[in-house]
TrEMBL record:
Keywords: Membrane, Transmembrane, Transmembrane helix. The chain crosses the membrane at residues 27-48, 90-116. Pfam families: FxsA. Residues 171-192 are annotated as: Disordered. This is FxsA family protein. The keyword GTP-binding does not apply. NCBIfam families: PRK11463.1-2. The keyword Phosphoprotein does not apply. It comes from Yinghuangia soli.
Length: 192
């Protein structure tokens, strides 16, 4: 049953694409249909080139903002990094769907690249993938536990905001402050 659910779209979508291309071809002519399909291929290549680069740049910026005290990326990415990664993936997937000849794939590609429909597609795919990961593996629980541990390791104000500052022991010895990224431990400094 599960294989039939996977194979049905793989067989049905190309048949629907051919049917739709033939219907459009009879309505506007074969030459215009070919030009429309070529326009989709060119648009997809441009989307991958420009929007993909821009989305990857946003992902890189979000990962740099998520860096810890030693300028290393945190073990568990934050929401901005996840959103930027999903946008980068959707932009590239949208470009690939536009390159594939057909009007259904073009419509799905446009849903992935348009700025006002991308958040909806991101939530839809994220919810489906997240529920499947949580159901089928222990990875979902491990990610949730890692995020809880990361949140516990940060200092928080009562309203939940992260407090930036230095760490001082009860006896007043300075342990760490932002900018202390020296690899060698000194007196009163934490290692690692």
């Amino acid at each position: 049953m599960r294989r039939a659910a996977i194979l049905l779209p793989l067989v049905a979508v190309p048949i629907l694409e051919i049917y739709l291309i033939s219907r459009v071809g009879t309505a506007i002519g074969a030459g215009n249909t070919v030009l429309l399909l070529l326009a989709g291929v060119i648009a997809g290549a441009l989307v991958i080139r420009y929007e993909g680069r821009r989305a990857l740049r946003r992902l890189q910026n979000a990962m740099t903002e998520n860096a810890g005290p030693h300028d290393t990326v945190a073990a568990v990415p934050g929401p901005a990094t996840n959103r930027a990664a999903a946008d980068a993936g959707l932009a590239i997937a949208g470009g690939v769907l536009l390159i594939i000849p057909g009007f259904i794939s073009d419509a799905l590609g446009l849903l992935c690249i348009l700025p006002f429909t991308r958040p909806l597609v991101r939530r839809l795919i994220g919810g489906a993938v997240g529920s499947q990961v949580a159901k089928r593996t222990r990875f979902g629980a491990a990610v949730g536990e890692a995020r809880r541990m990361q949140d516990q390791m940060r200092m928080h104000q009562p309203d939940g905001k992260v407090v930036q500052g230095e760490v001082i022991t009860p006896d007043g010895a300075h342990i760490w402050q932002p900018g202390d990224n020296t690899p060698e431990p000194g007196p009163g400094r934490l290692t690692g």
